[in-house]
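Hi P.,

Sorry for the delay on this. The queue was packed all week, but I finally got your sequence through. Input first:
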Amino acid sequence: MFAGTHTALVTPFRQGKVDYEGFRQLIEDQIIGGVDGIVPVGTTGESPTLSHQEHREVIGAAVEVAAGRIKVVGGTGSNSTDEAIALTQDAEKVGADGALVVAPYYNKPSPEGLYQHFLAIAQSTKLPIILYSIPGRCGVEIGTSVVARLAQDCPNIVAIKEAGGSVERVSQLRQVVPETFEIISGDDSLTLPFIAVGAVGVISVASNVAPALVSQLVRMAREGRLNEAEHLHRRLYPLFKNLFIESNPSPAKYALFLTQGLSPDVRLPLVEMSGDHPELIRQTLAELDLLS
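Then the structure:
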């Protein structure tokens, strides 16, 4: 259902407001680049700093521009279950194809709390749901036993975005979830090894900047062309690494400023990159022939 390459879209800003013209062009570039879908207002989309109205409008704009050509998975997670339900229902109303729901951050719920949180969201919508485990940001991991329970009890919980940095965890999940349940890489640099042990694709930051190359890597890996995929992975690895030299999405936004002219603006508490980092991003893009 969500195999392949899905781009975790940045939310472009100009003078503090959402740049919808730039956002639409970014989506068109993703479609031209051959991605399978887009994920607006996730972590890369600076969802914590968008108002609820902006949240709805950005997902709605993504659905409108995509126009059925690629899938749109709205980021709808929250550390408030009621808020996550409302955001997920809003995404369903505007026509999204699915919802990416991150683990509740800051609260540190128990495994039972995590189960009840996701169960309540799943029961509130008909949308297919991708769980999102990223313990480095949330302070809690969605345990394999919780994922297994949710996969069994909730027909519309169909996948997990795994961003815990462990290839072994993919193997652990693969042992306890149905074969149809999809595991998706949440780290560009781990996409190739994740697919090798049972993942089906990536929700990518790097594909904001290089959609064709990331899509090609995923296709090669999924087709079993591992030698070719490894060669492309090595070529892309500096991009994967350097897009995280500062907090995401500041480096990605600067890269899009260089390649597409989008503003590098981010919202506080994030700030634009400083020091030698902008030049490092420019050099990385130049080495990949991504600068015009």
